[in-house]
Design a protein that fits this description.
Radius of gyration: 16 Å
Largest sheet: none
Structural class: mainly alpha
Order of helices and strands: HHHHHHHHHH
Oligomer: single chain
Helix content: 55-70%
Shape: globular
Distance between the termini: 42 Å
Number of domains: 1
Strand content: under 5%
Number of helices: 10
């Protein structure tokens, strides 16, 4: 019963879109109406409001961290913690409050990873930062970080259930970036900070 309660609460927490929350607070248009149409920090940045993008990033990461942190604090088993991690991540991808059409999950995944193991999260973050700084492409940075993060989890000797959860999140992240992959191949992917346009 406790597992079910944690999983449901994690999913509902994940369903809160901080892209929409920050856009409301800063009187910005719905992030689904411009740029890539994705309710995430990178797209909110295209509005030109860096503070709104920062709030989106922090909020989406914090919800992932909080759900897993609480699961660990209540001494749930490794498989229960992995289930909570996936639930909050899936809540962001398929939020009940937005008709199951959510963001791509990069920031929420980061929060989950930081809660599971700080070095795992920092490794994923460092990978994202390095690729983003080199190519100015958020999607490419997210894809590379998603691919290598399960390897970091294995190297750190994390529980098998957590490694499998990181693999599942990585596969979902790659799948959610399928349009970005097509744009990257075609050389049409928008760079970080590029102005907004109709989706």
């Amino acid at each position: 019963m406790m597992t079910l309660v944690f999983v449901v609460c994690a999913y509902l927490l994940g369903s809160i879109s901080f892209a929409l929350v920050s856009s409301k607070l800063f009187a910005l248009p719905d992030p689904r109406s411009y740029g890539s149409g994705n309710p995430g920090a990178t797209n909110v940045l295209r509005s030109g409001k860096k503070a709104a993008a920062a709030l989106t990033l922090l909020g989406d990461a914090a919800k992932g961290w909080l759900a897993v942190f609480l699961a660990i604090s209540f001494a749930l088993s490794n498989i229960q913690i992995a289930s909570v991690a996936l639930a909050v991540f899936l809540g962001h991808l398929f939020p009940v409050f937005l008709g199951f059409k959510g963001g791509k999950g990069v920031a929420t995944a980061l929060g989950v990873l930081l809660a599971l193991n700080v070095w795992l999260g920092l490794g994923g973050l460092a990978t994202w930062v390095l690729i983003a700084a080199a190519f100015r492409l958020s999607s490419l940075a997210a894809l590379v970080a998603a691919v290598v993060t399960p390897g970091y989890a294995i190297l750190l000797g994390l529980p098998q259930e957590w490694v499998l959860a990181s693999v599942a999140m990585s596969l979902l992240l790659v799948w959610r970036h399928k349009r970005n992959i097509s744009n990257l191949i075609a050389g049409k992917e928008a760079k970080i900070g590029q102005g907004s346009k109709s989706p």
